[in-house]
Amino acid sequence: MASGVLALDKLGPTGGRRTEQIMHAIRSAVDDGNMVAGELYSVYQLSEVLGVSRTPVRDALLVLEQIGLIKFERRQGFRILLPDPVDIAEIFDARLQLEVSAVRRAAVDASLPFLARLDAQMEQMLRAADAGESQSFALLDQDLHALILNEAGNKRIAEYVGSLRETTRLLGASTMQRTRSLRDVHEEHRPIIEAIRERDGDAAGRMMYEHLVATGRLLVAQAVDAQRSTADPERIWADVVIPSHVQL
């Protein structure tokens, strides 16, 4: 039997998809401590608390199970899971293989309108950082990477990396305001943008590689700490991420 007590607000009307709204409510509840890892929760109770039918709740939970945030317990309900360090390392391994080569391509023929869009995005990120708006900053960060990926000319890669970043977000894996300030994260992007401005593909690739490796290692270490594991995060990283796939 489910034992977790839920203290969530009912969902209001939405112009978007109900499933996504439920997913966001669950992720927010985990962030706020209203839903706890390891606790068993009832699908029926969740639908009652949120004021929605069980069908969209199950749909949302199926998506969250697929990415590793929850686990269904047969005839009992579901449990919140902590982010898996290996899953996070695998996500960054994929991003390294795709984003480093993409930024090289984007830099070589960087147009003036593209550079202007990057500058505008960096300015918006800076304003969000100074205002302490972490959620807005995270979305702007995601959009900055999407700008670069789309400029590289492969929509499938852009969409795939976007889905990887969304998975990371839903898992609650973020260094922002934990091990790095928003300003720190903003400044990490500056060398990437400057290399693109110089149309130096190799330098842009190196800067993107360093940025993703720094972020990935921190997130793996955070996940290990959250699990109170004795595993070595650097060993996990080294076992999953193969440096040889990036020609620096």
From TrEMBL:
Transcription recorded as keyword: yes
Classification via InterPro entries: GntR_C, TF_FadR/GntR_C, Tscrpt_reg_HTH_GntR, WH-like_DNA-bd_sf, WH_DNA-bd_sf
PROSITE patterns associated with the record: HTH_GNTR
SMART domains membership: FCD (SM00895), HTH_GNTR (SM00345)
Keywords on record: DNA-binding, Transcription, Transcription regulation
Keyword field contains Zinc: no
The HTH gntR-type domain, residue ranges: 16-83
Alphabetized Gene3D superfamilies for the sequence: GntR ligand-binding domain-like (1.20.120.530), Winged helix-like DNA-binding domain superfamily/Winged helix DNA-binding domain (1.10.10.10)
Transmembrane parts of this sequence: none
Protein name per its UniProtKB record: GntR family transcriptional regulator
Organism encoding this protein: Rhodococcoides kroppenstedtii
